[in-house]
Amino acid sequence: MSFLQLQQLKKTFADGTEAVKGVDLSIDEGEFIVLLGPSGCGKTTTLRMVAGLEAPSDGRVIIAGQDVTRLRPAQRDVGFVFQFYALYPHMTVEQNIAFTLESTGAARRECRERVADVSRVMGLGALLRRYPRQLSGGDQQRVALARAVVRRPKVYLMDEPLGTLDADKRLEMREFIRSRQQEMKVTTIYVTHDQEEAMSLADRVVVMHEGMICQAGPPTEVYDDPASLFVARFVGSPGMNFIPGSVVADDGQRFFVPHQSQARMPLGRDVRPGPVTLGVRPEYVYPSSDGPIAGSVVMDEYQGNFRSIHIDTGFAHNLVMRAGDADARAVGESIRLSFNAEHTRFFDGNTGQRL
Ligand SMILES: Nc1ncnc2c1ncn2[C@@H]1O[C@H](COP(=O)(O)OP(=O)(O)O)[C@@H](O)[C@H]1O
Ligand SMILES: [Mg+2]
Q1: Domain limit, last residue, from 205, 234, 263
Q2: How many domains does the chain have?
Q3: Residue 13 CB less than 6 A away from ligand 1
Q4: 73 with 112, same domain?
Q5: Tell me, what's the pLDDT at 250?
Q6: Which of 23, 86, 255, 304 could form a cystine bridge with 264, CB 3.0-4.6 A?
Q7: Cα 72 to Cα 169: distance, rounded to the nearest angstrom
Q8: How far is the CA of 194 from the centre of ligand 2 (A)?
Q9: pLDDT at 105 over 80
Q10: Through-space distance between the first and last CA atoms of the chain, rounded to whole angstroms
Q11: Beta-carbon neighbours within 5 Å of ion ligand 2
C-alpha cells in the first residue's frame, strides 16, 4: 500500500477560487515527488493541505495508513519548508534549527550533534550565533531548510525552497537535498515551477495545470512521452517544436502534412486522419540530404556544448534543431531535414491530448 495518499483533494477559497479541483496521488515510502507547474496552478495550496496549514474543501490526506485530514500540522509528523514561512526572529540560527528537534523530545546532546552536523554539511557553521535579521534572504532560506532536514519526519514538504538562492548555491543545495533525502529515505513532496529542477530531483514528476494533475511519471517519461501539449510545452529547454497540420491517408499509407505546405512526412505509426499537432524535440531533428523538409538557417545559437540551429521551413518559421558544438551553420544556408519518426509525437488538433 502506498505511504502517502491524496484522495480527491479539493480546495475552493472563500472568494470562489477553485485552486485545487480533485487531486489523486499515491506516493510510495521514500519516493521523491516533484509537483511541477506554472504559477497559480495550485501547487502551494495542495502542499499546504498535506501539511495541515489549509483545510481541504473535500477529500482526504492519508499518511502511513492514518487519515490525517483533520489533524493539526504538529500532529502529522511532517517537516516543511515553505516559501514565506519565517524563522523565529528572537532565536539564533542554532536555536531555530534545534527548536523542532527539541520539541520532538530528542536528548539535548543528540540535538546539538545533529544541528552541528547539518550546519556543517550545509555550510551554516559560521552563522549559528546570528539572528535571522542578520542574514541574507538566501541564508535564511538555507536555515529554514536545515531546520526541516535536521529531523527525520514521516514526510518532507518543500515549497520552492531554493527560490531566493543564487544560481551556484541553488545547484549545491539541490544536490544536498537529493542526497539527504536518499540517505534518510524520507517520503518527499517538493514544489517548483522550474522544470529543470524537477527533472533533476524527482523520482516522479507530477505536472499540474489549473488545479489538476495532467501527468505523473518518471522524468524521462514526462519528457519523452508528454500526455498533452501543455506538458510538452512546459518540459524541456529549448522546448519541443510544434507543427500544426493534418494526418492524411493515401494509398494505404498515412502521412503528416503541415498546414500551408506540400511536405509529406511518412508516419512511424498509425494515427487516425484529422487535424493534429506534430511535436518533435530539437535533438530528434537532423540534417538529411533526401529529407522531406526544406528550409534555411535563420539563427545559429551557440550554447557551449551544443548548438540550437533555428530553421525557417515555410510552414514553421522557427524550427529548432540541436547540433554538435562544432557543427556551425551560416545564416541563410539551405538545409534539408528529417525527423526521427520514433520520437515524433502527435497531439489532437482540438484537445491537445496526445494521440
Ligand atoms: N487564500 C487564498 N484566497 C483566495 N485565492 C487564493 C488563496 N491562496 C491562493 N489562491 C489562488 O489559488 C490559486 C492557486 O494558488 P497557489 O496554490 O498558490 O498556486 P501555485 O503555488 O501553483 O503558484 C491561484 O489562483 C491563487 O491566486
Ligand atoms: Mg506557490
Answers
A1: 234
A2: 2
A3: yes
A4: yes
A5: 85
A6: 255
A7: 33
A8: 12
A9: no
A10: 32
A11: 44
Let me know whether 172 and 103 are in one domain: yes
Q: Which of 234, 250, 272 is the last residue of a domain?
A: 234
Cell digits of residue 56: 481541504
CA of 82 to the centre of ligand 2 (A): 9
Confidence of residue 260 (pLDDT cuts 50, 70, 90): confident
What mean pLDDT is predicted for residues 246-268? 87
Contact 337, 296 (CB under 8 A): no
Q: What cell numbers appear for 50 in the block?
A: 498535506
- Any atom of ligand 1 within 6 Å of the Cβ of 35: no
98 and 173 share one domain:
yes
Q: Hey, which of 19-23, 97-101, 143-147 has the most confident mean pLDDT?
A: 19-23
Q: How many CA atoms lie within 13 A of 265 on its CB side?
A: 31
Q: Which residues, listed in sequence order, are joined to residue 208 by a DSSP beta bridge? A: 213
Q: What is the pLDDT of residue 84?
A: 66
pLDDT at 85: 65
Q: What CA–CA distance (Å, rounded) separates 86 from 96?
A: 10
User: Which of 44-58, 76-90, 130-144 has the highest average model confidence (pLDDT)?
Assistant: 44-58
What is the CATH number for 299?
Answer: 2.40.50.140
Q: Which of 25, 19, 27, 63 is nearest to 43 (CA)?
A: 19
Select from 35, 45, 47, 213 the residue to mutate for testing ligand 1; criterion: most ligand atoms less than 8 Å from CB.
45
- Would you state the pLDDT for residue 340? 93
**Ligand 1 pocket, residue 84 CB under 6 Å:** no
Q: Cβ contacts of residue 328 below 8 Å, gap of 6+? A: 300, 302, 307
- Domain of 14 in residue numbering reads as 4-234
The ligand minimizing its distance to the Cα of 43 is 1
Query: Distances in Å between the alpha carbon of 207 and those of 47, 62, 345?
Result: 14, 21, 18
Which CATH number fits the domain that encloses residue 105?
3.40.50.300
Q: What is the pLDDT of residue 247?
A: 94
pTM of structure: 0.92
